[in-house]
Every structure is written in C-alpha cells, then in structure tokens.
Amino acid sequence: MQSRPYVAQRRERRAVIRAASAGLPAFDAGFLRDPYPAYRALREAGPLHWCEDFFQGAWLLTRHEDVERVLRDPRFSSQRTGGWVKRAEGLDAGHGGAYAMARAQGGLDRFQRLFSRAMVFLDAPDHTRLRRAMLGGFHPATIRALAPEIERLADEILDGLDGRQGFDFIETVARPLPSRVIGLLLGIDRADEAQFIAWSEELAVFIGAVRPEAEQLQRAQRSLMQLVRYFDALIETRRRAPGTDLLSRLVQAEEHGLVRTDGELLAQCAMLLFAGHETTRNLLGNGLFTLLSHPRQWAALCAQPDGIGAAVREVLRYDSPVQYTGRRVSREIELHGHTLRRGELVIALIGSANRDPARYTEPERFDITRGEGSHLAFGSGPHVCIGAGLSMLEADITLRALMRRWPGLRMIDAEPQWNGNAALRGLLRLPVRCGGAGPEGGVPESGAREKQQPAPELTPSSA
Ligand code: HEM
User: Fold this and answer.
1) Residue 304 maps to which CATH number?
2) For residues 375, 151, 269 and 186, what is the CA-based torsion angle, rounded to 10 degrees?
3) Which of 43, 225, 248, 414 stands 20 to 30 A from 131 (CA)?
4) Where are the alpha helices (DSSP H) in 73-211?
5) Distance between Cα 434 and ligand 1 center (Å)
6) Confidence at 376, pLDDT banded by 50, 70, 90
7) pLDDT tens by residue, 247-293
C-alpha cells in the first residue's frame, strides 16, 4: 500500500508539472480525426510534455530524435501492462464502479497477466529469448515464400468484386486479408475468420483507448477469454500433430525450453493476432486513402508500379498505422530539463516523430519520391516490429493488384470515417468506385487534397 505522504507528494508534483504543461492542444474527437495539427503544436511547444489526458498522466515525446532514442534505451522499460489495471481503478469514479466489478471478477487481472507475458511488453532477457523463438517464422526467406499464397488470397478477394461498380475497401479487402494472412502464418482454419476479426477488434478498441469505457474493457476481457480457449485447443492439436506453421514452431520452442510453459505460448499467440491484424488493415486503408487523395501520385504509380515499395514507406511515414507506443521509466532520468520519475509512463508519439521538420523536408507533404530514409512506423531498437516485412509485402501485393485491375479507382465519400482509435489509426469505411478509365481519369470525386502539380517522376533513387 502507498503511504499518504507519498500520495500527497505525487499530487503536488503533478500540480507542478501540470502548470508547466498548460495550454496543450485538446485530445478530443477532432484530434482522433486528424491528430497532425495537435502534434505540430506540441512539437513547436517543446520536445516533452506532461499530459493528464493520456492514461491518467504520461510524458509525451514529440520529436523524431527523442522517440528513436527512447525506444532504444533500456532505461525505458517495455513492461507497462500494470498501468491498465491502475488506469482502470482511477477511472472508476466516472463509471459507477464498473471497473471494480470487473476487477472483482478477476477478469482485468487475468487480462493484464496474460498480456504481460507477450514479448512486446517484456524486457531482456525474457524478451530476447522469446524474440529468438519467434524470429525463424519471420525470416525474410520465410516471408518471401508466402508471397504466392498472399497473392492468391488477394486475388480471391478481388475476383469476388469483378463486375461491381464500387465497394467499401475496408470491409471487403483491408479487413479480411490481414486476418487470412495471420491465419496462414499460424495455420488457422478459414471458418474461424469472422470470430478472429471480432476478437481482435475488441482488444484493439480497449488497448488503443486513451480513456477506455468500462463497456470496452468488459468486451475486451470476454474476447480475450474466448481467444485463449480457442488457442488452447489449437495448441493441443499442434502438440499431437506438428506442422510447418509458426504455431507449430512455437510449440516446439516450448518443448525445447525456449518458451516457458506458464502461459507464454498463449500470450504470444494473442499478441500476434492483435499486433498483425489491425495494423496491417490500417496500412492498407490509410495507404489507399492517401494515394487516392493524391491522384497524380496514384497515376504515376499506376504507370510505374515498381515505385510501390517507396510509396508504401511514404504512407507509413505520412499516416502511421501505429501512432504511439509506451515505455515505463525504470529509474530516474533527466530529460529536456524535466525529472522523469521511476514508474512514470512515456508515450513515444510515432505519428509526430514521422512529421518532424528537423528530420524530413516539408514533412506535412505526401511525396512518394521523397527518398529521405527510414521512418519510425515500425518502432526502433530491440522491439522493432517483427512483422514489418510481412505487412509491407501484403501492402505491395494488394496495391499492385488494385492498380492492375482498376487504375481509374476513385473515392466516393468526401468525409472519411476514422475509427477514433488514438493508437491504431485507421478508417472504418473507404467506399471506392472502380472507374473504367486509366489513371488520367483517376481524380477522386471528392476529398482530393493534391494541388495541381505535374505527376512525379519515379526514379530508382527515389525508391
Ligand atoms: C503496418 C503494419 C504494422 C505496424 C505499423 C506495426 C508496428 C509495430 C510497432 C511500432 C512495434 C514496436 C512496439 C514497441 O516498440 O513498443 C511493433 C512490434 C511488433 N509487431 Fe508490428 N506492426 C505491423 C505489423 C505487424 C505484423 C503483420 C505482425 C505479425 C504478424 C506484427 C507483429 C509485431 C510483434 C510480435 C511486435 C513485438 C516485437 C518485439 O517486442 O520484439 N506487426 N509493431
């Protein structure tokens, strides 16, 4: 139990910090639709801010250099799931004790215990051990070998749209494809796809909410428990009859002692489903939306599809599917004139870092010929995304297939509908019209944000 003086001290410190961080932009519905003006204001106001709106108090890091450095610094720990329980307790006042009830049922603690074993929430040496167990499944050669199968899955979905005037890209393509690919990776039956998508969405809503509702927590808990039961059964089948998929690999790693038997395997499965599904959906959605909002660049790409790799990298920089990740301060650190205390949460704003003018020329401009090196969309350091190659391959294959079939593709809605998730930024809907014409006719009916400029020339150096 914390002593009264400690609580009083903490309150006092927060008051001091709050005063120093006055005038932050509002993290409201407008922010969830378009966070970039707020990021810009934050960056211009300084590199580090204390913000009460994020998880009941967190340090926000705004600049590219700091985000990269903190993600690589072991003094900033990845063990941060304990905060979910604390955050929920703090929020109870406004929820009539719904969190306390969830806690009493043991659900929230189980939820936290399971996720705390996922490697994304661990530090060395446990993180290193689990990452080693997982790496084989994500080796570039293993991922390349999946390409024909991913092409087949993408074609199967797009063939089903032939003859249609238009379709909602999110519902018909971006939603099912990544879950089929994860299914392929883990060797999951297609019949279970709908359940999988629903569970993953409930988890994403809770994990991505800056101030989660009790209802969101309860749904996430329910989904996680169903997911656990599902994977328990699946793991049993792999023990009896191992295959060549990632799940069989992890079961074998457990048998060889590389993965512990106390629920670690289950935690990695839940993490993979969640980490690889929502993120890639949003890369596909944000990618197509941004390209169709810039019809000249879409046209240039249709004419020279080999520029697709550079275009996907620019989408990742310009509108990152993962907008931030967190770390906990493991010991007192001085940073930009502030003392960061042990246990405090640091939010590394990837979305802001990727638009930092100190790192990129005219960062608010989308430019598929940019060629200014890497972005931080996949993080950095020991936890850098293990699925980066896979998600880029999915985006490459899907966008190429779309350009081949419908170079005249255009958007229908003027106002995109964003999902309202501060961490996992993506669209709820993206209605498109197939359009018969070539790319010249590819000006969207609405929502175009590109000024009248000549189409960019794609050169090998820009890739
Ligand atoms: C566009 C798609 C994706 C984006 C933007 C993305 C982003 C990220 C980021 C930012 C991190 C670092 C988190 C941190 O440092 O706290 C990460 C880690 C991770 N990602 Fe991804 N991810 C994507 C796709 C995938 C896919 C397809 C998979 C797997 C199938 C995956 C699995 C993972 C895993 C397992 C980690 C944890 C790695 C570790 O802790 O060592 N991700 N991802």
Assistant:
1) 1.10.630.10
2) -150
3) 225
4) 82-91, 98-104, 107-115, 126-135, 140-145, 147-159, 169, 176-186, 193-208
5) 32
6) very high
7) 999 999 999 999 988 789 999 998 888 788 889 999 999 999 999 99
Q: Which residue has the tokens 């999902």?
A: 419
The count of domains in the chain is 1
pLDDT, tens digit, 9 for 90 and up, residues 63-73? 999 999 999 99
> Rounded to two decimals, what is the model's pTM?
0.89
385: Cβ below 6 Å to ligand 1?
Answer: yes
For range 432-456, the mean pLDDT:
55
Ligand 1 center to 9 CA (angstroms): 37
Do 133 and 260 meet the contact criterion of CB atoms below 8 Å apart?
no
- Looking at per-residue confidence, does 211 or 287 come out higher? 287
Q: Which domain holds residue 245?
A: 4-462
How far is residue 173's CA from residue 157's CA, in Å, rounded to a whole number? Answer: 7
What are the structure tokens assigned to 304, written together? 């020279």
Provide CB contacts within 8 A for 241, sequence distance 6+.
none
Most ligand 1 atoms within 8 A of CB, residue of 272, 378, 424 to mutate: 378
CA 100 to each of CA 85, 106, 221, 369, 386: distance values in angstroms, whole numbers, following the listed order: 10, 10, 14, 52, 36
What's the pLDDT tens digit per position in 170-192? 999 999 999 999 988 888 888 88
- Kindly state the DSSP code that residue 424 receives in the 8-state scheme: B
Distance 78 CA to ligand 1 centre (A): 13
At 128, the pLDDT band (50, 70, 90 cuts) reads very high
What distances in angstroms separate CA 8 from CA 5, 12, 59, 419, one per listed residue? 5, 6, 20, 38
**C-beta of 118 in contact with ligand 1 (< 6 A):** no
Q: Which long-range contacts (CB under 8 A, 24 or more apart) does 133-142 make?
A: 133/249, 133/250, 133/253, 133/258, 133/259, 134/246, 134/250, 134/268, 134/386, 135/386, 136/249, 137/185, 137/246, 137/249, 137/250, 138/386, 138/387, 138/389, 138/390, 140/389
* DSSP assignment string, 272-323: HHHHHHHHHHHHHHHHHHHHHHSHHHHHHHHH-GGGHHHHHHHHHHHT-SB-
List the beta bridge partners of residue 432: 167, 411
In ligand 1, which atom is closest to the CA atom of 121? 40
Task: Compute the distance from residue 142 Cα to the ligand 1 centre, in Å.
Answer: 17
